[in-house]
Amino acid sequence: MTILIVVIAIIALIILISTFKVNAFLSFLIVSILAGLALGVPADQVTKSVEKGLGDTLGSLVIILCTGAMLGKLIAESGAARQLANAMMNVFGVKYIQWAMVVTGFIIGIPLFYGIGFVLMVPLIFSITYQYKLHPIFIGLPMLAALSVTHGFLPPHPSPSALVVQFNANMGLTLIYGIIVAIPTIILAGPIFAKSLKGIQSHPLETFIPVQSTEFKTPSVAVSFATALLPVVLLMLETALPYLITGSSFKNIITLIGQPSIVMIIALIVATISLGLNTGRNMTKIMSIYVDAVKDIGMILLIIAGSGALKQVLTDSGASNAIAASLQHVSLPPLVLGWLIAAIIRACVGSATVAGLTTAGIIAPLMQQTHTDPNLMVLAVGAGSLMFSHVNDSGFWLFKEYFNISVKDTVKSWSVMESLVSVIGILCVLLLNFVIK
């Protein structure tokens, strides 16, 4: 009966979001309360479980997500992202322009949230398309594949960051594993797959060609690279240095500096100087950029909090343990099972974040009982959460409208690319699991 109630709750969540178009945060709250009551949680304890789930989830993520959004917004506003793209073009040239787009998308995708990265990079794709008379999808899809992979696999993006917390994984190690998995996934789902799409007719609107601002100085290429990649470097150093340094005092300092929230604060302080003050922007202007950035991710924060509420209700009611006990008899490996659950929810709901975080509450107890590597589970669930983007996903419509193509061609290009990212991603995770065992 417990499992049936949980299944009904998840189906209700999917129907509320996808059919009735109810906001995901409100859907999580409604379903969490009703599920708690149905699962036998005392009426006076249901709201306490919901509030605890909200607080526990946001408490460890607010700093990371808000500072990450601020950093990404400043990278976009300052022109640093464009500098990175231009540098890649100069290195690779027109002949290997696809690879320039891939590397640019990957580098920019790490600090930028997906929506910001998409809106920022698509005009760049079109400007290159018009300048060199190239096929838009052939050029653009590899870059968007890189953005998608970083969004689903790599901290400090919302879903993988939240999964790291919920699975008690290591942020730095997850990032390293994620990069290892991301590289072959991007290559196969991006440049190689895009070669089969040259027959699709795409006529991007000239409206989307970017207009450069001359009001402020543009940061140099070196400064742009250093600032954008600083969070990644610091997280990797935190993972590697404890093995190289033996002094306890140094280890304590490294541990403090290597905490994801401290990493993002340091990166934001550096960016405020290098991409803000040094480009002619005053502190008032920089702070207004940061305010806008937090507004952009406000709903993402609430959705993540809502998923934490559902997770807490499932935990307090004992449903999570019951599900874990029943799933132990399923012949699928935990990593594959986590991927499959996330993939099904993603296809139904259309949100990678909702799919990943909903799966976390279901799979976490099983993962602990089977001693599955939590860092790899983050990646497995992340891969599943990217499966088959279609008409219920905003990214599907962004791609269709920006590239000005039919729904059929959007499915053939965008939806298939996302599915390839998901399938190749889980295969790479399983291979990595085999290697590190």
Structure notes:
There is one protein chain. The protein contains 20 helices and no strands. The protein is an all-alpha fold. It has one domain. Helix 2 crosses helix 3, helix 8 runs antiparallel to helix 10 and helix 16 packs parallel to helix 18. The protein is globular and about 60 Å long. The model has no long low-confidence stretch (mean pLDDT 86).
Average of per-residue pLDDT values: 86
State the assembly state of the protein chains. single chain
> Looking at the structure, what is the overall shape?
globular
**How many helical stretches?**
20
First CA to last CA: what distance?
37 Å
Q: Using DSSP, what is the number of strands? A: 0
- Derived from helix and strand composition plus strand pairing, the structural class reads mainly alpha
Question: Main β-sheet, in a few words?
Answer: none
User: Rg, please?
Assistant: 22 Å
Measured by DSSP, the beta-strand proportion falls in under 5%
- Poorly predicted runs are none
Number of domains: 1
Helix coverage percent of residues? over 70%
One letter per element, helices H and strands E, the order comes to: HHHHHHHHHHHHHHHHHHHH
Subcellular location: Cell membrane
InterPro entries: Glcn_transporter
GO molecular function: gluconate transmembrane transporter activity
Pfam families: GntP_permease
Keywords:
437 residues, mainly alpha, 0% strand, globular
Please specify the SSE layout and strand pairing:
Elements: H1 2-18, H2 24-38, H3 43-59, H4 62-78, H5 80-92, H6 97-109, H7 114-132, H8 136-153, H9 158-166, H10 171-194, H11 221-240, H12 248-257, H13 260-276, H14 283-316, H15 319-327, H16 334-349, H17 352-369, H18 374-384, H19 394-403, H20 407-436
